# Entry
Amino acid sequence: MDNILFPSGDNEDRTARVSVLAWHSKDGEIRNLFTHIRHRRADGMGPWAGKSDHIWRTAELTASEAVGAGEIRIHRIDCSLGHCRKLVEGILDENKMTVGNIEVHYALDQPPRVHWAYRIHMNPFHYPDEHSVISPFNKHSAKVVEFWSFEPEPRDYWREVCESYPPRELEDALRGLAFRLDQRLDRVGNLMISGAEDEVDCELENKRSHLMLSVNPADGTDLSKNSYCATVWAGDSDDNLVQQHVEIAGRHTVISVDSELDQIGFALYRHRDGQCIDRLEASLIREISINMNISGGQTLVLHDPRRGTTNTVSIGGAQSVISVGDENSPALDSAIRREALARKSWQRDRLARSEGNLGRFGPDQMEQAIEFFLNLLSRSGHSDGPIYFAEPYFMQRNFDDTNERIYSSMFATTQGQQLIILCGQRSPHTWLSGYPSILTNHVAIRSFTRKDGKGEDRPAFHDRYLVMPDKEIIITHSINGWHDQGVTFATLSYGVYRAEVEELWSLTVGRDNNGVHVEEIK
# Structure
């Protein structure tokens, strides 16, 4: 198995960094949450600099304080590949590794799984957790040998840590691990060995009229022997403009391009075994705007004698915007790009509408808006659980024919389910008494208000939304405002409004709940 774990040859040719994320549990046992071993050529540029010193260093991850089930620490050592090999042998033979004066315990399945990690796909619409493992090396892809662990307890504990720790701070804390374990919970407990495929350095550049693929051998290999081949691709506005296979006969390979590009990429293959040893795809930015706000503006002191308050504000200094873009873009490319962007906007809007996740209606489209709203309500007719409708000005309604139809149809459509309405105005009387009880028996209404600085009642919430058993929808305008301003319905997937509406409805009626007064209207 040794030739699978590490490359053959002189161990001193490569240097390694071992990073161990360890759970120091309260019962005294120290367990592996994730161990990442990275190795590369000793004479090449890599993710760390300097010589191997074979000294363990430890940093605490304060996320453990939020869950209180022990401590989490990152232990790290830079060492020769030979020393690293001995550490791995100890883990596989004894299920533990000595880290300074402690022992970290492992529970690994054998044999390992071998896969490849390529450099990050720089598409702004793709997220890291949608991809396979990304190479931890900036300049190289990597061959990965991974031993898996399927113990549930460390995974459950790490899930608690991720849920209780600010995501950005956790990302920063894991930077030294070179692996986003907060996004890959399936990897908790694993041992991952990433070896940089650094026999060559590759780079693809966009040179306006051509692409240039540079392949630089690390050891001075003669590329004229056709040791490598590559596939190069490029596109613009979702069109494939270049898809070309090239043999690598020298350090630089040039491919002519007669159009603007917004995406380029390449894959480099080794002839002797056909393996893809490097791959990179990047989205190009057409224009960058840089805002510069020069400090040194005035500071004003504003005094309100009526309230006896004083506020200090700073007025920003001079501001300038620098746009770095391509002013010489061919007219054809610019026109095509405009049409492509318009097409994408239309497609996404159409898809959202077809799935019932988006409805946008102007003031002259009231019939369509009402139909969309009632269709949303009718979809949940066979679902368990109440329907919540939060509308701060629900009780302040216009009594015209259209509004009358909206309210009566809403009550009729939700028959068979509980309709819970939250509003933001106290009401000494209610117009609901004009409806027959058979139409409103399933309806419950409460108002939620708080006092403002003048002692007047104001709604205790401000957004308008509909929460159904299977989805939540934000509504941009009050029903009374649809005629003048139109309305948009958009489905959300976060459960934020569900949490808010359930918290509000749990408040005690007739009492002051930390400043929020709750009144039963119906």
User: Anything to note?
Assistant: The first helix runs from residue 2 to 5. The longest strand covers residues 14-25. Confidence is low (pLDDT under 50) at residues 123-129, 319-324.
